[in-house]
Fold:
Amino acid sequence: MSILIAGLILFLGMHSVRMAADGWRTARLATWGERGWKGLYTLVSLVGFALIIWGFGLARMQTIQLWSPPAWTKPVASVLVLIAFVLIAAAYVPGNRIRARLGHPMVAGVKTWALAHLLANGSLADVVLFGAFLVWAVLDFRSLRRRDREQGTKRGGGNVTGDALAVVAGLIAWLLFAYWLHGRLFGRPLLG
Structure:
């Protein structure tokens, strides 16, 4: 479990610098330049991500089950993850109203993904991993929305075409994950 926790600290810690220490981040950008800062950000994030994967795999080998989720949580989680995929796609598809409305659909998607996995899984490793991501996403979303208000950020309205592209991209990604990738990557097939 300690490797998983170390990975979460590195990965989520690096993704929290702007939220928790924006002045320090600004100073590093001024000193190291954008490339230097992005290099450090990428390196620490990749090391953290690798430790999360390794640590979660190790923790799952010695499962400590905290509760057994009811059967209804699996289909609910599946629908929530579909919504999460649409939100994540909306972060990258230009001209959609989802992004215009939420401002930060990627972080909203992470919140939804983490909540879905907390509902459907009851082991200690699941609670640590998905709980950490959920707490981070809630705090980051609040921080981003506050920064938007302070800076007077306005987003364009988007259109139906952008919405449709985000939904289709999210649905395709979800189908690939649900029918194929989740089972191959995590040993737990979801559908099919």
Q: What stands out?
A: The mean pLDDT is 92. The chain has two domains: 1-62, 65-192.
